[in-house]
Structure formats: C-alpha cells, structure tokens
Amino acid sequence: MKIAVAAIGKEETSEVSPRSGRAKFYLIFNEKGDLLEVISNPFSRGGGGAGFGVAKMLADKDVDIVVGRQVGEHMDEILKSRGLKYYEMIGPAKDAVTRIIVQEGRDS
Questions:
Q1: Which residue, 56, 65, 71, is CA-closest to 17?
Q2: What is the pLDDT of residue 43?
Q3: Does the structure show a pLDDT above 80 at 93?
Q4: What is the pTM of this model?
Q5: Distance between CA atoms of residues 13 and 63, nearest Å
Q6: Domain CATH for 51
Q7: pLDDT surpassing 90 at residue 68
C-alpha cells in the first residue's frame, strides 16, 4: 500500500495542504509509515486541470490512497475512476498516514 499526502513542505512533519491539486509537494509513504519519496508537484501552478494531472501522476506511481485537506469535484471523480481512495485530513503528514494505517487495518 502506498499513501500520497498533499503537503505544504518536504518533511514528514509538514502540514497537509489545504489544496490537494495545487499542493506544493506530495509525500509518498508505504504501509509501515516510512517516507519513500517526495514529489514536487508540477501542477501546483498554472491553469486548470491540476486535479486530473495529479491523479494521473499518483496513479502512475502506484499510489493507493491520497490524503489532502480538501479535494475538488473533478479530482475526486478522477481518483475514483483510477481506483484511488481519498481521505480529507488536517495536521502533519506523518500523523495523517498513521491514522490511515490504523483505519485501513480495521477495515481489512
């Protein structure tokens, strides 16, 4: 399981970004909560289509779950169409991942 967190910074302690499609970074964690990769979001600036671009980018990285503070309607549709789950959370990225790991463990 890979978890991508929309974050305002590159560190595990960075806050979850309020804008998922336009987040400056995506932090990729594994099912143990280890930080695997930091991605500078190429869609953080510019015109429309950020949600579509981010969803494709994360799906191509084999991400299973995306975390952000808020997801737009278009991004939500794209994530669902690609089979990715989405959680809306606040707080530090690492804390969000820990909560998801616990939640997913309960659901399985």
A1: 71
A2: 87
A3: yes
A4: 0.92
A5: 20
A6: 3.30.420.130
A7: yes
The answer to whether 23 touches 6, Cβ cutoff 8 Å, is: yes
How many domains is the chain partitioned into structurally? 1
Mean pLDDT of the chain: 91
User: Does residue 21 carry a pLDDT above 90?
Assistant: no
Range name among 48-52, 58-62, 87-91 with the lowest pLDDT average: 48-52
* DSSP E strands, the chain: 2-7, 25-30, 35-40, 65-68, 85-88
One-letter identity of residue 95: D
Q: Are 82 and 65 in contact (CB under 8 A)?
A: no
Q: How far is CA 13 from CA 30, 35, 96, 106, in A?
A: 16, 11, 10, 25
Q: Which neighbouring-strand residues pair with 30?
A: 2
- The tokens for 61 are 């990285």
CA distance 24 to 55: 15
Q: Which residues span the domain enclosing 101? A: 2-107
The Cα–Cα gap between 14 and 25 comes to: 10
Q: Hey, what are 62's tokens?
A: 């084999």
